[in-house]
Specification:
The chain has one domain. It is 68% helix and 2% strand. The longest helix has 42 residues. The termini are far apart.
């Protein structure tokens, strides 16, 4: 009976954490759209949204309301089931990745230790890449099911771009895995919090730069926003979509930005570790307070990366498609392989 009650409480804890993470993802995605407009306005010396609420803070709610109540159109020549499946897959895969990210340490509540991680599986990095690769199907199915040649062309470009940059992204992480010796996300964070508290970005600066560039391409962000290049492909792979189906595609992009920022913060910047070179356990604070501060530190790192994503969009012009593919295959993949070989040589030399 005790084991049964314990399992029920564990299920309740995990369900609550899932709801919190999903709600947080939606909230941050909503207000990243607001931040995008405000940062763009700041860079271009204008005001940005300022009508819906004070300083325009209700603008995301107005945009969401417009999408919800907009007329929904499904083209007669489309494959209706796949037309609906495309945005659903894009949104689902964007949210699933958050399951293995450690959002903090352990909270002690009502006599129980509650982990701030939904699933601490021993193949965390592989799980992330497996789920991210499914996002290609959301784009490809949506573009093909529309029965629009421009949408199909944009979907093919988007799929080839994502597959190409996933290779360099995976290779850049192999060097980090050589240092940690584990695929477990909690183990990767723990490796940065032991010994000298060295964050992996200090040991793997080239690996981080490659990963960040690939993250821009995976999220279809400038200068890699070729699947949505209006001057070449009208509106891109979601041209035929309207109402919340279009909203799902747009939201999935911002949720992917949020999750990509969380992965970068976790793998390269210590995750919920507050400061590098510092052992926070010696501060004499309560474990719960340290966990809350660690979560705040992780969110601060994520917000910084989101700002950089937005900053780059309004600073750098997009590549031509041949330049994009050349960068991925002829520059980033060889650099990632070189970084992996050098890291392997240094690790073997230090173990002698």
């Amino acid at each position: 009976m005790f084991l049964l009650s314990l399992d029920i409480w564990l299920i309740v804890e995990k369900a609550a954490l899932i709801l919190v993470i999903i709600g947080l993802s939606f909230f941050i995605a909503m207000y990243t759209t607001y931040a995008e407009r405000k940062v763009a306005a700041w860079l271009q010396d204008r005001r940005g949204p300022n009508r819906a609420g004070p300083w325009g803070i209700f603008q995301p709610l107005a945009d969401g309301g417009k999408l919800f109540f907009k007329e929904e159109i499904i083209p007669l020549a489309s494959s209706k089931f796949l037309f609906i499946l495309g945005p659903a897959m894009a949104m689902t895969t964007a949210l699933l990745t958050s399951a293995v990210i450690p959002w903090g340490g352990t909270l002690h509540i009502f006599g129980r230790d509650v982990s701030m991680q939904i699933a601490d599986i021993n193949i965390g990095i592989l799980y992330i890449f497996g789920v991210v690769s499914l996002g290609v199907y959301g784009i490809m199915i949506g573009g093909w099911a529309s029965n629009n040649k421009f949408s199909l062309l944009a979907a093919i470009r988007g799929a080839s771009q994502m597959i190409s940059y996933e290779l360099a992204m995976g290779l850049s992480l192999i060097a980090v895995l050589m240092l940690t010796g584990t695929l477990q996300m909690s183990g990767i964070v723990g490796n940065q919090m032991t010994g000298d508290n060295l964050w992996h970005v200090i040991l793997q600066p080239l690996g981080f730069v490659i990963f960040f560039v690939c993250a821009l391409a995976e999220c279809n962000r400038t200068p890699f926003d070729l699947p949505e290049a209006e001057n070449e492909l009208n509106f891109g792979y979601h041209q035929e979509y309207s109402s919340m189906k279009l909203g799902f595609y747009l939201f999935a992009e911002y949720i992917n930005m949020f999750i990509s920022s969380a992965v970068m913060a976790t793998v390269f910047f210590g995750g919920y570790d507050i400061l590098p070179f510092v052992d926070e356990s010696k501060w004499g604070l309560s474990p719960n307070l340290l966990t809350i501060l660690g979560f705040a530190a992780l969110m601060a790192k994520i917000f910084f990366f989101l700002f950089v994503f937005i900053w780059i969009r309004w600073t750098i012009p997009r590549f031509r498609y041949d330049q994009l593919m050349k960068l991925g295959w002829k520059k980033l993949i060889p650099l990632a392989l070189l970084n992996m070989i050098i890291t392997a040589a240094v690790v073997l030399w230090l173990k002698k």
